[in-house]
Specification:
By secondary structure, this protein is mostly helical. The chain has 13 helices and two strands, in the order αββαααααααααααα.
């Protein structure tokens, strides 16, 4: 029965997003809510409409409302998600300061913690678990926002992560997480048809903040340590691509003394395109990385402690080597 419900909600949210995204695009064009090229970071040939995030959110919300019974954690997820959607929608008009954005994200994370969505690391006191939860939620929320710099990149990586998270939830019989993740995956699947290169619509901060908060929340709600204690690092693998790019951008901006809150060319994806990869090739490479990390997440969960240490060490070394190689690419010269 649960598999039927998961399949139903996936295809329902997919259909809603597939049909709703063109409507969001038309509305954005009608009211002039577009992202205009600036010749530096925004290099699309013509203005591209925003509001794709609203389509993702509405299809997610409606599909859940039609087939799901709400409980405390689910209501917390919906409330927190609604807050960041509103925050992102206002920010898409360019009127929010970084301080206001972070304050809104902190409020959304606090709502989730109040509803019971938080880390439960047994070797840490409860207060530290709460602090780490808030840091994690705000960090992942912004990570998907930071990686949203190329057609289909953030949405596609989120789709891959949600599919692996859905599979883990089904195997572990976490029905609530599985159903919510299926709704998110379906809405992303319907949206990416219009967001892949060349993009007809962007998700904007409305979408990137929403999917970041959802995946950040869902990734710490499930149980990973049924087989061994080191499996608690699994969310780092599931969301490894946006985490890597965020840390890489932060290090590069600090190294060159740039503001952390202003756009730059420091992103890994822009560096790969600088060396000759096309937009589609770059995005597909990130998809492959997300899939590989998803497979490693499975091995980390269902393996043993020794395997977990080997996988974690290997991924860390690969990330460091990749970061060093990417840092050598000159993105400032034309």
């Amino acid at each position: 029965m649960i598999i039927i419900k998961i399949v139903l909600i996936f295809f329902l949210s997919l259909l809603l997003s597939w049909r709703g995204t063109p409507m969001a695009r038309e509305a954005a064009l009608r009211f002039g809510i577009v992202d205009r090229p600036d010749g530096r970071l925004k290099t699309q040939r013509e203005p591209v409409p925003y509001l794709g995030g609203l389509s993702i959110f509405i299809s997610f919300l409606v599909s859940l409302a039609m087939v799901f019974e709400f409980e405390r954690q689910v209501l917390g997820l919906l409330l927190g998600g609604s807050l960041v959607v509103l925050l992102g929608l206002v920010d898409d008009f360019g009127v929010l300061t970084p301080a206001v954005k972070f304050s809104g994200q902190f409020l959304a994370a606090s709502c989730l913690v109040k509803s019971g969505v938080q880390m439960h690391l047994s070797f840490l006191p409860e207060t530290m678990n709460i602090v780490l939860t808030v840091i994690w939620l705000i960090g992942i929320t912004n990570a998907f926002n930071i990686i949203d710099i190329m057609d289909g990149l953030s949405a596609g990586v989120a789709l891959v992560a949600s599919i692996f998270l859905l599979a883990v939830s089904v195997i572990n019989e976490h029905q609530s997480i599985a159903i919510i993740t299926a709704a998110l995956a379906g809405s992303l699947c319907g949206f990416i048809r219009y967001n892949y290169h060349p993009a007809k619509i962007y998700m904007g901060d409305t979408g990137s903040l929403f999917i970041g908060l959802m995946l950040g929340s869902l990734s710490i709600t499930g149980q990973y340590t049924l087989n061994h204690r080191f499996a608690f690092i699994t969310p780092l693998f599931l969301l490894g691509v946006p985490i890597f790019d965020t840390l890489f951008v932060m290090i590069m901006r600090a190294r060159h003394r740039r503001s952390m809150f202003l756009g730059s060319r420091d992103h890994a994806a822009l560096r790969l395109r600088k060396v000759g990869l096309s937009t589609s090739e770059t995005v597909n490479l990130f998809y492959v990385a997300a899939v590989l990390l998803g497979v490693l997440a499975f091995l980390n969960i269902f393996g043993n402690e020794r395997m977990s240490i080997v996988i974690g060490g290997g991924v860390l070394l690969a990330a460091i080597a990749s970061g060093i190689a990417l840092a050598r690419i000159d993105v400032e010269s034309t």
